[in-house]
Specification:
elongated, three-stranded antiparallel β-sheet, mainly alpha
């Protein structure tokens, strides 16, 4: 709506000059609005807030019109070529806008009700995979222990989804999960990491898998020297807490952790002490658990430091390269190696340096 057309909705005095301020009376509700022929922002604001349909109907700038229609909703997400789930987020953000509001936008392509239904079903089916991607690509949380529980969680979620959506896509996703991800379930490193995470321990194991898991852990613990003590830095900042997720609904609910006296005399007794404690809540940080139990469970704590510190994916490293690319720009080609290294250190560890 232009500055001239907006005044068509107001009764203005005849004897005023272009630069003088006057009060115009709204023809639709009778409200008096102050403004001038040059400054019409108050009139435009009134039409946007009180008579939105008329404002949209008479808008001339289509881009402004679309932004005005969508201003009451969350910002639409743009797809990113480097992240598959960004396109899913974009579709979900479009579906969050009511169909009647989208129909007001003047564009060549419009979604039919059938297409919106298909996209809504697609979002529901792929939502667990989006959550799994976000979890395993975390940078400030423990992720090494997630591949096995996440894989089993995806299998469980697909089983639940197949009740409502029994289609070829579900079957293909099940096949892909078993073919590509179930290799992690048999991997010794991931088994150790999942066991050493006090949120999981053996909760993810089937009954017949528990003995196999414990055998792997015992064999690894027997190789850990008892003389060396695990690091217990009192000044280490706690990592960001991981959020609970529906992916882990297939596991039994954890109970409140109970206090235990230090023991850990032998490998078996140390494992018994660890397993006798209830799993901590999913919202708690596993590193804080080992920080407070490194004296009681020295061998297990030493293994936890080694395995839980490993990122599950290369996403944190890729973010580091992206940050480095923004720092070492072409116009800063004379940046010395030492200076560049220090800038990266400050950028990636700024919170720890405060």
């Amino acid at each position: 709506m232009s500055s001239k057309s907006v005044l068509e909705h107001f009764t203005v005095p005849d004897d005023f000059q272009n630069g003088n301020t006057f009060k115009g009376k709204c023809m639709h509700c009778g409200t008096l609005i102050s403004g001038s022929y040059k400054v019409t922002s108050n009139f435009v604001t009134h039409m946007k807030r009180k008579h939105r349909d008329l404002y949209i109907l008479h808008s001339e700038n289509k881009e402004i019109l679309a932004s005005e229609i969508l201003e009451d909703y969350k910002r639409l997400q743009a797809a990113n070529a480097t992240r598959w789930n960004s396109q899913l987020h974009m579709i979900c953000s479009v579906l969050n806008v009511p169909e009647l509001e989208l129909d007001k936008i003047d564009c060549k392509t419009k979604l039919s009700s059938y297409e919106r239904k298909l996209l809504s079903e697609l979002c529901s089916i792929l939502e667990p995979f989006d959550k799994a991607t976000v979890l395993v690509q975390g940078e400030k949380t423990v992720t090494a222990s997630l591949p096995i529980p996440v894989t089993l969680g995806l299998k469980h979620q697909l089983k639940l989804i197949s009740v409502d959506y029994n289609c070829k896509m579900i079957k293909s996703l099940k096949s892909s999960v078993e073919e590509r991800l179930f290799q992690f379930v048999e991997d010794e490193g991931y088994i150790l990491a999942s066991f050493l995470d006090p949120r999981f321990k053996t909760r993810w194991c089937e009954t017949e898998q528990i003995d196999q898991c414990l055998a792997v852990v015992k064999d690894k613990l027997s190789q850990v020297p008892t003389s060396s003590e695990p690091p217990c830095d009192q000044n280490s900042p706690p990592c960001k807490r991981a959020k609970n997720d529906d992916l882990f609904s297939f596991m039994p609910a954890p109970s409140v952790e109970r206090k235990r006296n230090p023991s850990g005399i032998s490998v078996s007794s140390e494992m018994d002490d660890y397993l006798s404690d209830n799993c901590i809540d999913m919202s708690k940080d596993p590193l804080l658990y080992w920080h407070s139990n490194c004296q009681c469970l020295p061998r297990l704590a030493k293994l936890a430091v080694q395995y839980l510190a490993i990122p599950a994916t290369s996403a944190p490293v890729e973010r580091l390269f992206s940050t480095a690319g923004k720092t070492f720009r072409p116009e800063r080609c004379r940046l010395a190696d030492g200076t560049f290294e220090k800038l990266m250190m400050v950028k990636c560890n700024g919170k720890m340096l405060k």
